[in-house]
Amino acid sequence: MPADLSVLLLAIVAGATLQVGVGVGFSIVVAPIMMVLLGTATAVPVLLMLNTLVSAAAIDIRIWSTGRTLISNAIFGCLAGIFLGLLVYPYLSEQVVLSLTAILLLIGVVSTLIPMKSNISIFGYRAVSGLSGLATVWAATPGPLMMFGLLAIGRPAHEARKLVQPIALIAYGVAFALHIMTDWQTFASAAGLLPFALAAGVGSLLGRLIGPRLPQKTITNTIRVISILACVVLFRRAYLMG
What angle do CA 94, 100, 104 make, to 5 degrees? Predict the structure, then answer.
């Protein structure tokens, strides 16, 4: 097995473990390596496909009964953001798209560091979900924004990491479907899809094992660190294109 492929498979396992255990992390860990090895055009639909699989594997069916309203509102916001992102995308350069996505993530990080006297409203929650939809279709990195919205509306970190999975499943799934409808050939020609999917499955199982053992503060701080790393990666890619 080529060394590059081994590194990518390990990254997929690690990313899936984080995604399931913490609630975010897959695209941030996997995207930089995958985009270098496969190219951005191929990597984005592959990332969306793998994220869809990981989110499906991470879903806790019991969360539907306690979080149906939050999940529904987030899905509505995400879908609105996805379709808006698709309309705007042709008018933006890739450099601008990457920079805007990084700015959205940075705003999310800052929002968790500022003490808030009260939780955000359901309208604000929908707005954050819409921004998450933009990030999904633009750069396949919506996870932190989804989590920030759930934390800002008052959900504890352990509950938020479960609530985010069905939201991500719909958001990633729709974005993936739209990508392959417009350019199926690019996705189908990607090498290693089956090994990638298997690695994502292994990481998802590991994430289910470690998730319940993580303290609330650890989950929140991990989300912040992952988001900051994502900002650095996206800004760097945007700068190199300039």
Answer: 145
Interatomic CA distance for residues 4 and 204, integer angstroms: 22
Could you read off the pLDDT tens digit of each residue along the chain, which spans 242 residues? 566 788 899 999 998 998 888 887 787 788 778 877 887 778 888 988 999 999 898 888 888 878 888 999 988 988 898 888 878 877 777 788 778 777 877 777 776 676 666 678 888 888 888 888 877 777 666 567 788 888 888 888 888 888 888 888 888 888 888 878 888 888 888 888 999 999 999 999 999 998 888 887 888 788 788 778 878 877 887 788 76
For the chain, the domain total comes to 1
Domain hosting residue 180, numbered range = 3-241
- Nearest-angstrom CA–CA distance, 190 and 229: 26
Is residue 160 within 8 A of residue 70, CB to CB? The reply is: no
Q: Residue holding tokens 């149906």?
A: 68
Write the DSSP symbol of residue 1: -
Rounded distance between C-alpha atoms, residue 183 and residue 100, angstroms: 24
Q: What is the pTM of this model?
A: 0.79
Question: Under 8 Å CB-to-CB from 208, ≥6 apart: which residues?
Answer: 20, 21, 58
Q: Is 29 helix (H, G, I), strand (E, B) or coil?
A: helix
Q: Which two tokens stand for residue 75?
A: 């899905």
CA distance 147 to 239: 27
What does the alpha-carbon distance between residue 161 and residue 220 come to, in Å, rounded to a whole number?
A: 10
What backbone torsions phi and psi does residue 241 show, to the nearest 5 degrees?
-85, -15
